Amino acid sequence: MAGLLALVVLGLAGAVSATGWAEARAQVAKLAPWQVGLLLLLSLANYAARGLRWHLFARHIGLGLGLRANLRHFLGGFAMAVTPGRLGELVRMRWIARETGVAFERAAPLLLVDRASDLAAMAVLTGAAVLASGLRIAGGGPVLALALLAAVLATRPRLLAALARLGHRATGRFGRLFARLRRAARALAPFASGGVLLRGSVLALFGWLAEGLAFFLLLHWMGAGVSAATAIAIFLFATLAGGLTGAPGGLGGAEAAMVALLSLEGVPLAVSVPATVLIRLTTLWFAIAIGAAVFPVAERHSRRISDALD
């Protein structure tokens, strides 16, 4: 983690050095405190919408936890957002088990449906923004097509299970992969009824739209002539691309994609690099900071309840 973060910092610092630190500092100096505050508020809107979605999913499977507890678990898990594959966020399952006595197997689908809902919302929003902006991304078509296909499958567990069975019968190979897909379909099945997965994805869509708008505002304040649709498309596509690298939090991949796509739109490095750094600070690292503050509270609270139940 430390090595990866150091490489990202060095890469961004090198890009800034290529155009001059004075110019980058001048771009950052354009921002007033209230503007930075607005960026953070838009990020909070994202976390609030997705936190409500987590509460919606938790209630749907009958965990019996209130809104405050579910938000505490959701936000506290952000402290582990930069673990490989974000597996550290499984700590939410530990808190749920301590406070409710629910087995891991019953609560674990929450993590999967949370990812599936995010993917569905981001894929739809990215596709709409790309079409509205006319943005041309080399290799972007296949990536968006795969994301949209994954979004469709993630929100239709029966279709996912059927395709997994057909795929295994047709190929006779990749048994482990198709078995995982069938298990994922079974885990998502409880959320397919009552439109709960659709409602959760709508909440996620508004959440990610808020962060995309934050990126547009930031670029606008720095003088970049980029439309709202283009800014949203670049932000979300870079976030998806960063996730595909498998790096914790998409570190490196997301930043590189943002800078490259902004450069293709004619945004100079003196603007694109500080804008990328600032948007990552006010989104990913702001979430991690919130998670770091909530994490010990969630840990103490879950232990206290667990001790009381014992």
TrEMBL record:
It is a multi-pass membrane protein. Pfam families: LPG_synthase_TM. InterPro entries: L-PG_synthase/AglD. The chain crosses the membrane at residues 32-49, 187-209, 215-238, 277-298. It is found in: Cell membrane. Keywords: Cell membrane, Membrane, Transmembrane, Transmembrane helix. Its main location: membrane. GO terms for cellular component: plasma membrane. The keyword Transmembrane applies. This is Integral membrane protein. It comes from Celeribacter indicus.
